[in-house]
Amino acid sequence: MLDERPRARSTIQVDNDSVRVTEWRFPPGAATGYHRHEMDYVVVPMTSGNLLLRSPEGESTAKLTAGQSYARSAGVEHDVVNANEYDFVFVEVEIKR
After folding, report:
1. Beta bridge partners of 88
2. Of all residues in the chain, what percent carry a pLDDT higher than 70?
3. Environment class of residue 86 by beta-carbon count within 10 Å: exposed (0-12), middle (13-18) or buried (19+)?
4. Taking a C-beta distance cutoff of 8 angstroms, is the pair 40, 74 a contact?
5. Which residues in 34-70 are b (16+ Cβ under 10 Å) and which e?
6. Per residue in 23-45, pLDDT tens?
7. φ, ψ for residue 6 (rounded to 5)?
8. Which residues pair with 77 in a beta bridge?
9. β-pair type (88-95, 19-26)
10. Domains observed in the chain
11. Residue 82: which of 13, 22, 33 has the closest Cα?
12. What is the largest CA-CA distance in the chain?
């Protein structure tokens, strides 16, 4: 079945030898699409709210707070979905080695 969810919109802000910084904007219900992170990364939420995470381990909900960053190692596989009734925004900083 075709996935008819809207897609999150990514805008690369910086891409150099050290980092790639991407702003992600999600309308309600929008998703990134399933992907695997090839680099360690830091997420800086610009909005507070809940994101639905779909991964090989199942589904979980992440409660994010604006300005409260978190870091993950390369290898994470998931689809990220805006579970809020409003737009959600975060900035992702990928660390190149």
Report:
1. 26
2. 97
3. exposed
4. yes
5. eeeeebbbebbbebebebbbbeeeeeeeeebeeeeee
6. 999 999 999 999 999 999 999 99
7. -65, 155
8. 36
9. antiparallel
10. 9-85 (2.60.120.10)
11. 33
12. 39
Residue 33: what are its φ and ψ, rounded to 5°? 90, 150
User: Residue 97 — pLDDT band, cuts 50, 70, 90?
Assistant: confident
Task: Look up residue 42 and give its two tokens.
Answer: 């830091």
**Cα dist from 42 to 2, 53, 72, whole Å:** 31, 16, 6
Pairwise CA distance, residues 28 & 38, whole Å: 27
On average, the pLDDT of the chain sits at 95
For 62-96, the pLDDT digits (tens) are 999 999 999 999 999 999 999 999 999 999 999 99
